Amino acid sequence: MTETSKTSKYAAGRRRFLTGAAAVTAGAATTIAMPNVSRAQTVTLKMQGSWPAKNVFTDMAKQYVERVEKMAGGRLKVDYLPTGAVVKAFQVQDACHKGVLDGAHSVTAYWYGKNKAASLFGTGPVFGCNASQILAWIHFGGGKELYRELVQDQLKLNIVGFFAMPMPTQPLGWFKKKVSSADDLKGLKYRTVGLATEIMQGMGLKVTQLPGGEIMPALEKGVIEAFEFNNPTADSQFGAQDVSKHYHMGSYHQAAEFFEIMFNKDRFESLPAEHQAILEHAAEAANTANYGFAMDTYSRDLQKLINENGVNVYRTDTSIMKAQLESWDKTLTRLNKDPFFKKVVESQRAWSERVAFYDLVNSADYKLAYEHYFPGKLPA
Fold it and tell me: Fewer CB within a 10 Å sphere, N or C end of the chain?
């Protein structure tokens, strides 16, 4: 073979190799470039909240919706509506059960009238755990299994639900004058919801359950003369500062509440598994977003109430909170006659004995640190 022939043969072989390699590379590039696109069909769910359109809780519900839609890549949409768009605030569970709504954003205290154990999943007794620790009980201490038992087995409701947002302690509320003792509360016409109604009634108040949107009309009509709702932002959005200048913070009536995000069970189970997972785990994502948003917003609006609206902010007197604990004791003794109610309470109590022990023994004294750096700022 001549040198020229060798060169030609080598060149032809090299061309074949490069051509083959290019084809393989192009094929690989095509494979890599192809996104792992979800094959789930695009669906839209109709969800209503228990909150007015202009309310911080609506903002938090929308944080959940945004996370669902982004995690689903646009293949799962949520048409979120404010209270009253389809049904009233206290009616969203019934609407989900019947399929009138696909989903709802609310709190379990709003359907406490069906079974008093409902309130244990948001406005239950305080054994030493805060809201974050009771939300941990729902996820890791058997709470979600007990919730499913209550909703599906006890009440026979066509509902599945998830929880998000460990709410900061809800203030004792708004009053016409400073209250310094449990005796100052007796006889007051007061608004709250859930088991808190029984706690406050046990202390001698005359309690009315109302959704947030009905608080101001009830004040104007004299149906109530004192109330609590939830936090400085939501309270100021209702105009509480325009009817009262006495705001008492710290209470055991609702110290561990969270949002209930519920869905019609048939509708939920008809969705692809990936969409079901997104609806469930987006609640965990919203949990972080809601809480961070709350810390920023609630703290800013509390300062606004003090500095711009002339509201007197007090730390609720310890004697009042002790009276609340005594009222809780009596309420639990009475309601624990129901076996399921007692089972949930005992589960929370066992969890709190272990978890609160760890937290209280281990936590730094944050109040001591605050007073060190900001002396004289905290109300007496």
Answer: C
To which CATH superfamily is domain 43-167+257-295 assigned? Bacterial extracellular solute-binding protein, family 7 (3.40.190.170)
189-191 and 76-81 as β-strands: parallel, antiparallel, unpaired? unpaired
Query: Order of strands, edge to edge, in the sheet holding 103-106?
Result: 76-81, 43-49, 103-106, 259-264, 159-164
Its pTM stands at 0.86
CB 188 within 8 A of CB 224: no
Query: Phi-psi category of 84—alpha, beta or left, where left has phi over 0 and alpha has psi -120 to 50?
Result: left
pLDDT digits (tens, 9 = 90+) for 25-66: 444 444 444 444 445 578 999 999 999 999 999 999 999 999
Q: Do residues 42 and 74 lie in contact, with contact meaning Cβ atoms separated by under 8 Å?
A: yes
**Contact, 101 vs 87, CB < 8 A?**
yes
The Cα–Cα gap between 257 and 253 comes to 10
In contact, 230 and 128? CB cutoff 8 Å: no
Burial (CB count <10 Å: 0-12, 13-18, 19+), residue 100: middle
* Terminal CA-CA length for the chain: 105
Q: Which bin fits 173, alpha (ψ -120 to 50), beta or left (φ > 0)? A: left
What DSSP line would sit under 43-64, residue for residue? EEEEEEESS-SSSHHHHHHHHH
Beta strands in 147-229 (DSSP E): 159-164, 173-175, 189-191, 206-208, 226-227
Q: Which residue ranges make up each domain of the chain?
A: 43-167+257-295
Nearby residues of 123 by Cβ (< 8 Å), 6 or more positions away: 107, 108, 109, 112, 193, 194, 195, 196, 253, 254, 256, 257
